[in-house]
Amino acid sequence: MGPHPAVAAIRLAVRRVLHDVLNDHHRKQLDPAHEPAAPPLVLVACSGGADSMALASALAFEAPKLGVRAGGVTVDHNLQAGSGTRAAEVVTRMSSLGLAPVEAVSVTVGRAGGPEAAARDARYAALDGSAQRHGAVAVLLGHTRDDQAETVLLGLARGSGTRSLSGMAAVSGAAGRYRRPFLQLDRQTARKACMVQSLPVWDDPHNADPAYTRSRLRQEGLPALEKALGKGVVEALARTAQLSRDDADALDHWAADAGRSVRDETGRLECAKLYALPPAVRRRVLRGAVIEAGSPAGSLFARHIEEVDRLITGWRGQGAINLPGRVEARRQGGRLVIRQG
């Protein structure tokens, strides 16, 4: 008799990702300049919640069969009393699954961008550090289809365009470090897999705290949408994410080529050439130029780019536009000048 369907589903998802990781690893080994390496190490980012515990168990099961070393890391955000104790418990649970190396990394969460963004930045910095210390080729994240739906809705609320609607990528980070095997699986499947395997899980109280936007969306927003529109909203939003990502990737590629064609011999942006571009492409070119000048991508919103765009499409002699990161954009002699002030 085979494993429970939920367990089989999470294992299959992880197996597919490990095959992709191995293929990438083997391609690098074919490079004559590349030093022969030990079997690749894959880490799981585990909070102790149902999603990441299901992921950790599936990684521990599948990795040895494929000749992959499997370890884990948990991040202690120091935002709740007893967080250090819980992190130590997660390390023990990962070790009991057979994962090695395993570690807990303690971080200090700042305030930039709000509590959720600051915690996310601190967490990814810790995961990057852990991967570098241990030489891991990939870090697996337990984001599910439900998380993807929430991310799409948050992007829609921000009004930040197609890229925001594309949600989380299955592969992201430097050299494709971060992999998300569960984006096609719902949260209930992960929880069921933990239950039938008797895996202890910890439910983060922050996930039910209405002080956090994502928590309100999870507890109130999505249920209200499903009540009004019927079941299938989560699946539809996840499909929207993939379609939007495909569109955004194509537009980004177009914008990269266009960005080179709209500059003069000194590298300055020519307003007439920018004006001739389709709006979606032009705004991407402008966003890239503003970020290149020093504006933090995370602080740059659609309204900022719209203001810069009006220097091209609605020129009435207006002055410089102030942007995040002390960057300013102004129109000067038929050229768009973007630089830090």
From TrEMBL:
Biological process annotations from GO: tRNA modification
This protein's GO CC annotations: cytoplasm
Compartments where located: Cytoplasm
Major subcellular site: cytoplasm
Keywords: ATP-binding, Cytoplasm, Ligase, Nucleotide-binding, tRNA processing
Binding site for ATP: 47-52
Pfam families with a match to the protein in the record: ATP_bind_3 (PF01171), TilS (PF09179)
GO molecular function: ATP binding; tRNA(Ile)-lysidine synthase activity
Domain called tRNA(Ile)-lysidine/2-thiocytidine synthase N-terminal: residue spans: 42-220
Catalytic reactions on record: cytidine(34) in tRNA(Ile2) + L-lysine + ATP = lysidine(34) in tRNA(Ile2) + AMP + diphosphate + H(+)
Domain tRNA(Ile)-lysidine synthase substrate-binding: 269-336
UniProt enzyme class: ligase
Transmembrane segments: none
EC number annotated for this UniProt entry: 6.3.4.19
Domain notes: The N-terminal region contains the highly conserved SGGXDS motif, predicted to be a P-loop motif involved in ATP binding.
Family membership noted in the UniProt record: Belongs to the tRNA(Ile)-lysidine synthase family.
Function: Ligates lysine onto the cytidine present at position 34 of the AUA codon-specific tRNA(Ile) that contains the anticodon CAU, in an ATP-dependent manner. Cytidine is converted to lysidine, thus changing the amino acid specificity of the tRNA from methionine to isoleucine.
Name of this chain's protein: tRNA(Ile)-lysidine synthase
Gene: tilS
